[in-house]
Amino acid sequence: MNKSFLLGTGIALSFLLSPFSQASAEETREGERKQVENVAHRGATGYAPENTIAGFDLAVDMKADYIEIDVQRSEDGELVVIHDTTVDRTTDGTGRVGDLTLVELKSLDAGSWKGEEFAGERIPTFHEVLERYHGKVGILIELKAPEQYPGMEEQVADALKERHLDRPQNGKIIVQSFNVLSMKKMDQLLPEVPIGVLISNSALTTEEAIKQFSSFADWFNPSYKLVMEELVDRVHSHDMKIGSWTVRNQETADFLFDMKVDAIITDYPDYVDPRN
Predict the structure, then answer these.
(1) 83 is catalytic
(2) What is the value of pTM for the model shown?
(3) Is the CB of residue 222 less than 8 Å from the CB of residue 244?
(4) Which residue in the list 41, 164, 236, 238 is annotated as catalytic?
(5) Which tens digit of pLDDT belongs to each residue from 110-147?
(6) Domains of the chain (ranges plus CATH)?
(7) Percentage helix, strand, coil, to 5, in the chain?
């Protein structure tokens, strides 16, 4: 938020000092628009294959504040970045992620389904993503189906600790999941890392539910279909931030801006950041 404040201040000064007042006014509106974290959902998924280096690199180029990644585990115990619990949809292979070894997963083409120009993109490991992007862009880490991978929380925590990311500056590492028990565990393992809970059910948006989440979580991340001003206010009243998903059109982005959420999780980073 400090970065956005400085950007807005610089634009305001430009407006006062520059003869090109109309252009400056447009920049001011854009600067004001940027008071939200821009989270590239599985990378810049609207333009590149999800959860691949190509998609993450493009998200960085598009000035996203965070990349959102999905973490699972191979049959031989390696943490890998892929959304579905099977490889069928996003690769040329078949089978469950947890039933395939890292070598087998790495042999799959994870890009051609999106376009010939992405042929040969591979499923990255969690370690590869951390090494390539930490310090360059924030990383929102979703533990995908952790109930299927006992001990996954400890593995993720250890990987972050190895890189001193268990004490992230400016909250640039966040861990989230739909699995509440998993996130309570992550809060114990990584007490200085912001924790998020993913919400798709309106039953979990009540005052009592949010109060319980606030005992261990820093982010409350609902589907945009659940977002309303009352919910945003309720979340903020419990000193949590709210990040909503998944934006796939400009109208939804505009709606979430109006609702004053803290983060917008989107397949299209350019719908959130007018610099693109």
Answers:
(1) yes
(2) 0.88
(3) yes
(4) 41
(5) 999 999 999 999 999 999 999 999 999 999 999 999 99
(6) 1-35 (no CATH), 36-271 (3.20.20.190)
(7) 45, 20, 40
